[in-house]
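This protein record is not my work; I was only asked to verify it. Where you disagree with what is written, explain briefly why. This is what I was given:
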Amino acid sequence: MQQIRERAREVMQGKCRVCPVCDGRACVGEVPGMGSLGTGASFHNNLRSLANHRLVMRCIHDVVDPDTRVTLLGRALQLPVLAAPMSGVSFNMGGLVTEQEYLSALLEGCVARGILGCTGDGAPELLTEAAFGVLHRLAGAAIPFIKPWESEELVVKLHSAIEHGARIVGIDVDAVGLVTLRKMGHPVAPRPAAAFKELIEQTPAKFILKGIMTVDQARLAVDVGAGAIVVSNHGGRVLDHVPGAAEVLPAIADAVGGVIAILADGGVRSGEDVLKMLALGADAVMIGRPFAVAALGGGREGVEHYINKIYTELKAAMVLTGTRAVTNVTGDILC
C-alpha cells in the first residue's frame, strides 16, 4: 500500500497530496480537486464525528471467524463496503490517467473482491460515456449515480444506464448546489418529493438517493419508493459547515432502519471505521478518496490491495469486539 500511495502522489500532481492521514487539512478549499469546499468544516466534521466514537474491546467469547457478508438491494457482497462515485479524473485527479482507465481499475478491482463500485457523471459527456462503457463491459456490476439534472438529461441518462446493464441506479441529490454546472450549460436543480416518486416508479431499477442528512428527508425517501439512501454530505464538497455523517446517522437509522437500506459515506478510512458506521446504524458504507488513491496508484491490483486491507481490519475489529456478523452489529460495541 505504501508503494501504491507513492505512485498515486506522482500521478495526482498536487491535486491530492496523499497525506499520511486523509483529514482534508492540506486541501482546504480545493474544488475542483480532491479537497473540500470553503473552510473544510464539513470534511473535518465527517472525520471528527467518526473519531468521537470508540470501540469497546471484548475478548472472552467464541467469535473466531466473523461473517463479513451482506446482501444489499439484492446484490451479495463479500463485505459491506462500496467504492463511492467519483469522477472527473482530468480536472480532479491530475489528468495523467484517463477516465476510462480509472473506472476500469476501480470497478474491476471491486468485482474481483466481491463488492460493488459506483460511477459518477458530470457536464463533460466523456464522463458518462466512460462510466457506461465500463458498466456495459462488466455486465452491470456497478452502480451509476446521475446528477439531478434540471432537464430531460436526467431521465435520458437513467434509462441509458439501465440499457447498459445497471440493475441499481442512484441520484446524488446533494449535487443541486453545483452552480458551475449551470455555467457549463448543464444545470442541476432540486425536485419535490412527488417528482422523485414519479421518476422512481418509471425507472425499472432499484433506486438510491444519496445526500440524505436529516430524518425528515430519510422519511421522504421511503415515501417516494427509494430502495436505499446514502447518509452523506458529499465529502464536504457542496456545503460548508454541515454535520458529519456519523453525527446524523443514528437518528436516521432509528427512524427508517429496517424499512429502507441505509448506507453511510464520509470519513471512512479503515475497517474499524466501517464497523463503527455499522454500529451507528448503517447497513453498508461507501468510501471515496482512499479508493481513488488506490486506483490511480496501483490500478486494479491497487484497488484489490485496498479492499484486502479493509477486509483484514474489519475482521480483526469484529473479533476484538465479539461481533459475529456484519448483519448483526450492535451499538454496545461503541463508547
Q: What stands out?
A: The CA atoms of residues 65 and 319 lie 7 Å apart.
